[in-house]
Amino acid sequence: MKAAARIVAEADGRGGTRLVELYGEAPLLPRRTLSAGPLSARVHVVGGAAGPLGGDDLHLDIRVGPGAHLSVHTVAASVALPGPAGSRTLVTATVAEDASLTWLPEPVVAARGCDHRAESRVDLHATARLHWREELVCGRHGESCGDLTLAMAVRQSGASLFRHDLTVGPRAPWFSSPAVLGDARCAGTLVVVSPSVEVPPLARPGLAVMPLAGPGYVVSAVAGQAHELRARLSL
Fold first, then answer.
1. Which of 35, 53, 109, 146 might form a disulfide with 42, Cβ 3.0–4.6 angstroms?
2. Within 13 Å, how many C-alpha atoms sit on residue 167's CB side?
3. What is the DSSP letter of 227?
4. Contacts of 70 (CB under 8 A, 6+ apart)
């Protein structure tokens, strides 16, 4: 299955944000939901079908115009399932000047036998702000992990700001080594970019905080269970 979805947010000229486009094809169905404040818009992506299944190619495009503020969530975890071929989800995002994007999806689960690539590409203006979280769970309860790659790239003003790939599963047997996940079954990343942000002075088991090559920082965390991972990434 091939499916595409698009979310476009613009400033409304009165200090708020309006959604000028919400388009989706199953299983990517974006729906506007109640915002946490008057200045921003919030969207939840609803899964209109199971998956991603092997062979699926899914693309979500997010565009935040100048001065707009958008928060995007999903209503449930994405379970990557096996099929006759590999699957892919691609999220692309463009955030314009003085705009902000918050991306807080539920985890992606690498079910046994899957062959999935979850890719994110973000382009930021020099004055844009970003709060981007990604979480991975290695298999369902009592299940071994399938093959899955999380790949993320963030650019600011055309220059690379952050790149990170993580591959788990039988084709990457080293993923459970002490140098990667060890005995953890969950891994996640939080990327925060803002012109005035400071790196938080955190020192906790299971996470690392590092400055970016620009105005921001990244938090990398591992945990035995999904709720523990979420707590470590909730700064």
1. 35
2. 8
3. H
4. 7, 9, 17, 40, 41, 42, 43, 62, 64, 99, 100, 101, 102
